[in-house]
Write a structure and sequence with these properties.
alpha/beta; five-stranded mixed beta sheet
Length: 501
């Protein structure tokens, strides 16, 4: 950790040979509003900037530098956007803080937000509420970032847990949602019928309000209330469908649609809300993505995200998806939906998410990934696909992963674990012994493939491989599976030829 001011001088004086470079973060500040503006946008930008920076710099984890107006690309390691937004009708203010890649992309992206209701508040009260909101959002971002900044590049801690886990089980979602306030209108008579018990009057009121939803705010607000609150699922769906046009244009309606996705229990209603959200742009698009990710974090598969790419809070959502899905009953805890979103992530980010799960051996915990033992290579499992997700992005084979693979093989006779060791593990004398042991137990091709790979890649280990295989041939101390004798002899001859000049 690096310190500022007098503390930095003290550190340099006492430990002159140690200097820790803080990651640099370029930041910019934005403010947006509709027609409702209880304060000047310039004052709003200055207020949220001052408050957020005070919180973000206090832990001494990052070095913030303001991005000049003439620059669109970041020169720093990472980039931060601070955005304040005033929302019409609901009369709320939301602060969004989004941290993402700049010159480096090794850490997850995060976004945090917090909202304040400004309705019927004086100017001093508005300023106080916005400051408190910006402070809370910044604290949430620091909380999310801190373990990742502290563990960046770390490869080992204690023997039991070689990798520090930068995530917490049941971690709080950093994106807080603003209150949804739908104004009351002049259509109290229609509202009484729409929410009444007489079916005919109910449907008549719906048809009247829906016909006016494009042109009259009162009708739109009534239909918004219906989509959010009506006790009949079918009518909530009808009202939501009626909002398709305003939901493409109006921020308050977009916020209502997102809230419908978040709170409604009916799958048809949620599906319609999700479809409407695919057309959102700007801040509404960002909020839609966070709503989808929050569904993923709860263990629900949201197909809308599979082709979107890297997103703020994506790592957090996948990690939570793995954990929450693991709490379900066996047979309903497939992590396929979680794994589908891992495409944009680097090896370091994948390892941060998956390590806790792939090393787990207790099948009774939510961290355990189901396998299939010797049938694993034929059917594919969560455990196998998770390891594959690591290997496909790994710059080099991780020896600690090799230990996990061997433990899984010993415990479950995992055919995939053995194949991964044979194909990818770093050649070593220990690996030779393990593959020999596996051949003795099974007598099939997989360990011999690995031994041949080692013999080809390491002249130093080649004699050991030949000696071990020759000993097996002479003693016959191996499983006599189908064609095991001929397999061993043929492979030994091929390896011995590697020594020939």
């Amino acid at each position: 950790m690096c310190f500022r001011g007098g503390l930095l001088a003290t550190l340099l004086a006492t430990t002159p040979s140690i200097v820790f470079a803080l990651p640099t973060v370029d930041y910019e500040v934005k403010a947006s509003a509709g027609s409702w503006r209880p304060m000047d946008l310039g004052d709003l930008r200055r207020t949220i900037e001052h408050t957020a920076l005070e919180v973000l710099t206090k832990p001494g984890l990052i070095q913030l530098q303001k991005l000049s107006k003439d620059k669109t690309s970041s020169a720093g390691d990472y980039r931060l956007e601070i955005h304040g937004r005033l929302l019409d009708e609901a009369e709320t203010h939301t602060v969004y803080l989004s941290f993402g890649p700049g010159q480096k992309g090794d850490l997850p992206s995060f976004t945090a937000s917090h909202s304040a209701t400004l309705r019927k508040k004086s100017r001093p009260e508005i300023l106080s509420a916005i400051q408190a909101s910006a402070k809370t959002a910044a604290q949430e971002l620091v909380s999310a970032l801190k373990p990742h900044l502290a563990h960046a590049g770390s490869a080992a801690s204690d023997h039991k847990n070689k990798r520090p886990d930068p995530f917490r089980d049941g971690e709080k979602w950093p994106f807080a949602w603003s209150e949804v306030h739908v104004p009351g209108g002049s259509m109290s008579g229609l509202a009484e019928d729409l929410f009444g018990k007489n079916h005919d009057k109910m449907m008549a009121a719906f048809r009247v309000a829906a016909s006016k939803v494009r042109d009259e705010d009162g009708a739109r607000n009534l239909i918004e209330r219906c989509a959010l609150e009506h006790p009949k699922e079918s009518l909530r769906l009808d009202c939501l469908v009626a909002l398709r046009n305003p939901a493409r244009r109006l921020a308050p309606t977009q916020r209502v649609v997102i809230e419908v996705l978040r709170r409604d229990k009916d799958s048809r209603v949620r599906k319609e809300a999700s479809e409407q959200m695919t057309h959102f742009t700007g801040i509404a698009r960002q909020e839609a993505v966070q709503a989808w990710l929050q569904q993923v974090a709860a263990g629900q598969n949201m197909g809308e995200l599979s082709k979107v790419g890297d997103l703020p809070n994506l790592d957090l959502a996948i990690r939570s998806c793995f954990y929450e899905t693991g709490k379900k009953e066996k047979g309903r805890r497939s992590r396929s939906g979680c794994l589908e979103l891992m495409g944009p992530l680097s090896y370091q980010r994948r390892a941060a998410i998956l390590w806790r799960f792939i090393r787990e051996t207790d099948a009774n915990t939510p961290h355990y990934l189901d396998g299939a033992g010797d049938a694993e290579g034929r059917i594919g499992t969560d455990w196998q696909r998770s390891v594959e997700a690591l290997l496909e992005e790994a710059p080099a084979f991780d020896d600690e992963l090799g230990e996990i693979l061997w433990r899984r093989y010993e415990r479950d006779l995992s055919s995939y674990a053995l194949r991964a060791l044979a194909e990818y593990a770093t050649p070593s004398a220990r690996l030779v012994d393990r593959l020999i042991e596996a051949f003795q137990s099974q007598g099939d091709y997989t360990p011999l493939n690995g031994l041949e790979r080692i013999a080809k890649s390491s002249a130093q280990l080649r004699p050991k491989v030949i000696d071990k295989l020759t000993e097996l041939k002479v003693t016959g101390n191996y499983a006599k599976g189908k064609n095991a004798n001929s397999i061993l002899e043929e492979r030994l001859k091929r390896i011995e030829k590697l020594e020939a000049p």
